[in-house]
């Protein structure tokens, strides 16, 4: 009963996470009925971000800058590097305020069946960085507590064994099978302070 | 900590109804990390809809066509016209399948303090239509059961008193399948005062 352009807008909104048919409908009509300036702003913001946001040269965080703010920030601790799966994890850790070092974002986790190996996760780049930057003395592996996250952590531990590093795995607090981005800041703080060396 | 374009995208997503800071963040990163083709599709759909969707000449429903599908549909009953506040109401009624007549969408409700009077709601256009189209014999007022919706219904009833029409107001009260204890006091009051004899 709706016109083609409205139906297409509703369908397109459904690619947003957590948006079902009913809320997509509500969003589309809200934009068209009451929020055209906001809708235009969203169009422009989407277009700019999709065309210009890439990954930080150093840490692979999402950014439109060559080097992201976190890597540029001179006040951070160069001694510790925390490896996470996704940009959402960086945000979660930053919002908890429990970590002041540097990051490396894998943009995934090892998943051979999906064709995601060390290369896709930038692991050669990470290993070179750990080797070439002697200021880094501690590596914190904060991949998710899932099977694939654990496999990735294990791989990383083995691949860095020859380097003079303290390697730890983020520990207590993250529920097994849970994903970092859905964990509250308190739990994250606890998990980070309770990290254990990986033997 | 996020780059300007990502922050702006997160802010822009918050104009969507029901989207708070946390889910806007998740949406933005999801689009940038995993759903760029979907994001581009959404950009195009938004742009087209915002530029081309206007209102149906006859019923004021949202559509990019001069006359909407519902008004064009020759199989519908020309005898009954249902007046609603918003396009969402048309969709709700259509999805219930309980009405096969025509619609008129006010795109609001009387609200003098906000400068919304009969003119803004297209009431002169509606009255002309009711006068000029003798096929219409029944007017159903389906504005919301709010103070403003009731005031709008009252105005409409008075404005159409001279016309040879059956005018009805949709019933309000405890929703079917609803339990009394979960219905708000206002609804209960209304339901009680609107009680009808059981034959
Ligand atoms: Zn960076
Ligand atoms: Zn129409």
What can you tell me about this protein's structure?
Two copies of one chain form a homodimer. The radius of gyration of chain A is 20 Å and the shape is elongated. In chain A, strand 5, helix 7 (147-159) and strand 6 form a beta-alpha-beta unit. In chain A, helix 1 crosses helix 2 (21-34) and helix 5 (87-96) crosses helix 8 (185-193). Chain A has two domains: 4-52, Helicase, Ruva Protein, domain 3 (Orthogonal Bundle), CATH 1.10.8.420; 75-193, Dna Topoisomerase Vi A Subunit, Chain: A, domain 2, CATH 3.40.1360.10. The longest helix of chain A is centred in the N-terminal third of the chain and has 17 residues, at 36-52. The first copy, chain A, contains eight helices and seven strands; from the N terminus they run H-H-H-E-E-H-E-H-E-H-E-H-E-H-E. With 199 residues, the first copy, chain A, is of the alpha/beta class. In chain A, strands 4-3-5-6-7 form a five-stranded mixed beta sheet. A two-stranded antiparallel sheet of chain A has the order 1-2. Chain A has helices spanning 4-13, 21-34, 36-52, 69-72, 87-96, 123-132, 147-159, 185-193, and strands at 54-55, 62-63, 80-84, 102-105, 138-141, 166-169, 196-197. The interface between A and B is large, with 57 and 56 residues. The structure holds zinc ion (2 copies). One zinc ion (ZN) binds next to helix 4 of chain B. Chains A, B: Residues 79-175 form the Toprim domain. Chains A, B: Keywords: DNA damage, DNA recombination, DNA repair, Metal-binding, Zinc, Zinc-finger.
